[in-house]
């Protein structure tokens, strides 16, 4: 069976001797059902011609960021959006350094920045260069951002040296892409409902009670689940974030509205993730007019009533989905999270310490403990995007084991 059926693969070829293997790589990707478009750097053209790549891919090769004719055919932003996967093979030390440092001075490096597609690289260089600290540091940077590393292999090199630095064979590269979690799209046919962001509880027409949630964690989860093939419904409190590709978003403001929206989606929900920072309380009587300072001799007192617990509603519904909660804690992280796991009858809880600087609310990074009844996984500080992928993977391990789907 073709395992990359209809997958849009953007192949970046850079200037190394291993570029001669690129036409074979294109052929093998197409054998697996992928549609391949090729982008070449200038130096790649010294090793293999654009015409050969055009012949094997069936599409004109793109090579210039500033070419108006090429932009009229498929502009670089369009190409970045088109890609489901970027693979750079061979990836030279120079290209690795440039993408590690966010350069955007040629078409390939710009596409890597402009695309949300997962990036894989198949490094190819002299063994001494591969071992150089600068190269290894750049590789670590890319790995920490979730870039997939394919190879390099060890053996005799074109220059006569022996060691690591040989580009993996096209068959190995294709297999590594097939095996990558992003490619597996293991959630195809399953629906995730994910809550994100804060809720807002009105005090009067101009004031409300809320919290510092930006929605970043929940949106990253929605993006990661969609990339893994799921249909994703994101029930979002007020945020400034764009909707991730392929995700259906329902905007709400209050806890009641969030609960209603979630309940309407439960009929066809396989996995529920409660990442929203939901207000536990709302104001008992919302003033219909702005509360005036001068009308009050004394400081006004707000009477609060408890809000419904959305997560608990989902977990105790008639046919509950696989239910994952978050625990935002400032002390006793594990103990408090475990108590929520049990009290709310969850399959899994992601516990984050929101008292730490640089993680948790409104930051780009997070660290967490993923807890279930019989397992514990610690996630060190990483980007919320990487954490979202790790959480979706952890859910997959339990979900597919339990349901044998
Ligand atoms: O949005 P960001 O800026 O990226 O920040 C991410 C985050 C810190 C908000 C996120 O990682 C997180 O911890 N979300 C949960 C916040 C929270 O409300 O935690 P809690 O411990 O108070 O609630 C426990 C769980 O019950 C949560 O899954 C929450 O969604 C749910 N809950 C809480 C109250 C309520 N009335 N209904 C609920 O469903």
Note down, in words, how this protein is organized.
The protein is an alpha/beta fold. The chain has 2 domains: 8-184, Flavin prenyltransferase-like (Rossmann fold, 3-Layer(aba) Sandwich); 188-404, CoaB-like (Rossmann fold, 3-Layer(aba) Sandwich). Helices cover 34% and strands 25% of the residues. The strands form 5 sheets. An 8-stranded mixed beta sheet has the order 12-11-8-13-16-17-18-19, with helices on both faces. It has a 5-stranded parallel beta sheet with strand order 2-1-3-4-5, with helices on both faces. Strands 6-7 form a two-stranded antiparallel sheet. Strand 16 (322-329), helix 14 (333-343) and strand 17 form a beta-alpha-beta unit. The two termini are 20 Å apart. The mean pLDDT is 92. Bound molecules: ligand PMT. Ligand PMT binds at residues 195, 197, 213-218, 255, 274-278, 280, 307, 309-311, 325-328, 340, 352, 354, 360-362.
CATH C-level class of the largest domain: Alpha Beta
CATH architecture of the largest domain: 3-Layer(aba) Sandwich
Please report which band the strand proportion falls in: under 5%, 5-15%, 15-25%, 25-35%, 35-45% or over 45%: 15-25%
- Helical proportion, percent range: 25-40%
Enumerate the strands of the largest sheet in spatial order, edge to edge or round the barrel: 12-11-8-13-16-17-18-19
Q: Which structural class is indicated by helix and strand composition?
A: alpha/beta
Largest sheet: 8 strands, mixed
Give the ligands present: ligand PMT
Task: Let me know the CATH homologous superfamily of the largest domain.
Answer: CoaB-like
Q: What is the CA-based Rg, rounded? A: 25 Å
Supply the number of structural domains: 2
What global shape is seen?
elongated
Distance between the termini: 20 Å
Q: Could you report the average pLDDT, rounded to the nearest whole number?
A: 92
- Taking pLDDT < 50 over at least 5 consecutive residues as the criterion, the unreliable ranges are none
Total count of strands:
19
CATH topology of the largest domain: Rossmann fold
Helical region count?
15
